[in-house]
Specification:
The complex is a heterodimer of chains A (286) and B (306). Chain A has 286 residues and is mostly helical. Chain A has 16 helices and no strands. Chain B has 2 domains: 6-124, Rossmann fold (3-Layer(aba) Sandwich), CATH 3.40.50; 139-301, Alpha-Beta Plaits (2-Layer Sandwich), CATH 3.30.70. The chains are: A mainly alpha (286), B alpha/beta (306).
């Protein structure tokens, strides 16, 4: 069984880019002016898309630049420059077959990014932007699995459907690893700093997280909350329990949770509108 | 084992590209081929090669604009570019607008191509005297740029980092180098995004940039804002909250050292009575003293009238 794992790991180590949604790329293409407003809009779009964000952070942290700890899109843009980010974003490939799943996952990822930001701010945690970036990227492993193992992905989806399993358990059964581990491999081979790779790797197992346990805990809770709200589509529709260790490390309480859930609802409506706006630019490329 | 030299080949001629790839790979180069003009900058930025070969014959205008774009970013301008061109086209190329390092005729003679590649790679090691850390132009170019700026309506700005020495002592040179690389990128991007200008690296933590006077103060402020934000990534949570770390000062005493910040001396060339380029640095040194007196990052402008 170890074979499949190492095969997949090798594939990931060789992965240098990933496709994103056509709507995202079309929207970027429509921003031709180099004025302040369009630079801001570009930053907004880039930091709403897990694949684009990951690619830009990969570049910023790559040995050719010699920075080793760039973990937010705004810092990456300062260091790389607007032109470089723009060229990189515009050279994105797109998913050729646009599936319902990819849009669902896109919405889920953005939703968790927004939720994590909300939680981090509520708790007055340092490095809120880093936490939202980690949250945006937490399911990047799912993008790779669906792209590089599309046959296995069919089986995973069937297993979820037929046996009512969590996606992660189905992945373990069929490809002998899961999207969190796969995302961790990618973030290592893409030079992402620990404050991002740790929450990605351990968002289903907060206790395993070491130096960045608080960040991991926020991402974990944000993931659960967004699943519970029914927003987006993370692959299965089952809501896991919030892990006790996450609750403890953040010193959460129920009143705080109630406030967050309340505010999150409004935020998710905004996210939905943004998503619809991007989908609206799906066909307008010509 | 040493990393293999990486070469990118840009050509819309699939057969030529394949041929190139096979022959170069047989020589031990790591080769990527790029067939579409649209993808080339992104591919280039995301994985910069050591040398680029462009097929000017298949799409000259698009190739020329890509070459110019790459040359305009100091970070990439040093990468050698070799053009492929049919002999009869040679005198129709305006080399000014197509700044290659070298060209070679189609149909290709591969032994010649290999020689030109080796030459291009060794030349870059020999003559490339830009600062190796920041890849910005060094003192010869700076001197020239300042002389050209004399008595025109531009402003020369001198940047350095406050408390950089104790930072290096406490955190080590590799962290210090990273700060230098960050600052060089921040300056370069801020100047370029404002509409362009000159950026140079004097050495150590000293930088110069020159740009039209009406943009100078806004760019100083942008550089300061960006630096103050980015530099936080170089410290751990506790140090950030505390706002200082403990180090040894010049007298060998333990001291509280504040987080890194910038001082910028701003010297407008038109308004000041500068007759000689050496005078610019002298004035900058005076202004820097003033800038260092304040806590945190700041810029100080010379307001003396000519």
């Amino acid at each position: 069984m170890g074979n499949k794992r190492s095969e997949l790991k090798k594939i990931i180590m060789d992965t240098k880019t990933l496709p994103t949604l056509p709507g995202v790329v079309n929207k970027l293409n429509s921003l031709t002016e180099n004025d302040k407003a369009s630079v801001q809009e570009m930053a907004r779009i880039v930091s709403s898309d897990q694949v684009l964000s990951a690619r830009i952070l990969r570049l910023a942290n790559s040995p050719s630049y010699g920075f080793y700890r760039v973990s937010t899109i705004s810092n990456a843009m300062i260091l790389l420059g607007v032109n470089v980010v723009k060229s990189l974003a515009l050279s994105s490939s797109i998913f050729e077959i646009m599936e319902k799943n990819s849009l669902g996952l896109w919405e889920h990822s953005l939703g968790v990014g927004v939720a994590a930001n909300l939680i981090a701010r509520k708790l007055n945690l340092p490095e809120c932007e880093e936490i939202s970036t980690a949250a945006l990227l937490h399911d990047i492993g799912k993008v790779i699995i669906s792209l590089k193992c599309s046959e296995a992905e069919q089986l995973i989806r069937a297993a979820i459907h037929d046996h009512g399993m969590y996606m992660r358990d189905a992945e373990r059964e069929i490809i002998d690893t899961d999207h969190a581990e796969v995302g961790g491999w990618l973030s290592k081979s893409w030079f992402l700093p620990d404050k991002l790779s740790e929450p990605i790797t351990f968002h289903h197992d907060v206790a395993q997280s070491g130096n960045h346990r608080m960040k991991t805990a926020v991402v974990h809770i944000a993931d659960v909350l967004v699943k519970a709200s029914g927003f987006g589509d993370s692959g299965d529709c089952y809501v896991p329990q919030i892990q006790q260790v996450a609750w403890d490390v953040l010193k959460f309480n129920e009143q705080l949770m109630a406030e967050i859930i309340d505010e999150l609802e409004d935020k998710l409506v905004e996210v939905k509108n943004f998503s619809l706006e991007l989908q609206g630019s799906n066909g307008s490329a010509d | 084992m040493a990393q293999p030299t990486r070469i990118s080949c840009l050509s819309s001629d699939a057969q030529l590209a394949l041929h190139l790839q096979l022959r170069l790979q047989s020589k031990g180069f790591q080769v990527t081929t790029i067939s579409s003009i649209e993808g080339v900058l992104g591919a280039f930025y995301s994985d910069p090669p050591d040398l680029l070969i462009v097929d000017l014959h298949s799409d000259r205008d698009a190739c020329a604009s890509i070459i110019i774009t790459l040359r305009n970013d100091s970070f990439f301008s040093a990468i050698p570019i070799i053009g492929l061109i049919v002999q009869t086209e040679c005198d129709t190329v305006e080399w000014e607008h197509c700044p290659l390092d070298d060209f070679i005729h189609l149909p290709l003679r591969f032994d010649e191509l290999f020689s030109r590649i080796s030459l291009a790679l060794s030349r870059i090691k020999r003559i490339f005297d830009n600062n190796p850390l920041s890849r910005l132009p060094g003192n010869t170019s700076i001197q020239k740029a300042i002389e050209e700026a004399m008595a025109t309506d531009v402003t020369v700005c001198y940047v350095d980092i406050d408390n950089f020495k104790p930072y290096n002592d406490v955190y080590g040179f590799s962290h210090g180098d990273e700060v230098i690389r960050m600052l060089s990128r921040i300056i370069f991007n801020a100047v370029r995004d404002s509409g362009g200008g000159f950026c140079g690296h004097i050495g150590g933590d000293d930088f110069v940039f020159i740009l039209p006077s009406e943009r100078a103060e806004a760019v100083c402020q942008t550089i300061i804002d960006f630096f103050d934000r980015i530099v936080l990534d170089m410290f751990d949570e506790d140090t950030k909250t505390r706002g200082y770390y403990t180090g040894t000062n010049r007298k060998g005493e333990q001291e509280r050292i504040p987080l890194l910040s910038l001082s910028i001396a701003v010297v407008p060339m038109r308004s000041s009575k500068i007759r000689h380029s050496a005078k610019v640095a002298e004035m900058a040194a005076e202004l820097k003293k003033l800038a260092k007196e304040s806590v945190g990052s700041c810029y100080v402008t010379d307001h003396r009238k000519a």
